[in-house]
Amino acid sequence: MIEQYADSAAAFAHNAHCEHLLAEMNQLAEMTTLQIHGDITPDLQTFADSLPIAKTFPALT
């Protein structure tokens, strides 16, 4: 699955809004990889660092 957001605030808002669906998804499938590409803000990096499956990639210039 690929999801795209305007910025890190939009990604966090999506996660908060869909928290109950994400919990159900975790009962049906195991997420094995999470890649975050783009402008990696400090709060987004902290989030990624909390997940062993997450890896961040800076925006291409």
- Low-confidence spans: none
Name the helix and strand elements from N-terminus to C-terminus, one letter apiece: HHEHE
Number of helices, where a helix is a run of at least 4 consecutive DSSP H or I residues: 3
The share of residues in helices is 40-55%
Total strands: 2
Overall geometric form = globular
Beginning-to-end CA distance, first to last residue: 25 Å
Q: In order across it, which strands form the biggest sheet?
A: 1-2
Q: Beta fraction of the residues?
A: 15-25%
Itemize the secondary structure elements and their pairings.
Blueprint: H1 8-17, H2 19-28, E1 34-38, H3 42-49, E2 54-58
Parallel strand pairs: 1-2
Would you write up a description of this structure?
By secondary structure, this protein is of the alpha+beta class. 46% of the residues lie in helices and 16% in strands. It contains 3 helices and 2 strands, in the order H-H-E-H-E. It has a two-stranded parallel sheet with strand order 1-2. Strand 1, helix 3 (42-49) and strand 2 (54-58) form a beta-alpha-beta unit.
Notable features of this structure?
single chain; about 60 residues; alpha+beta; 3 helices
Provide a concise account of the structure shown.
With 61 residues, the chain is α+β, with helices and mostly antiparallel strands. 46% of the residues lie in helices and 16% in strands.
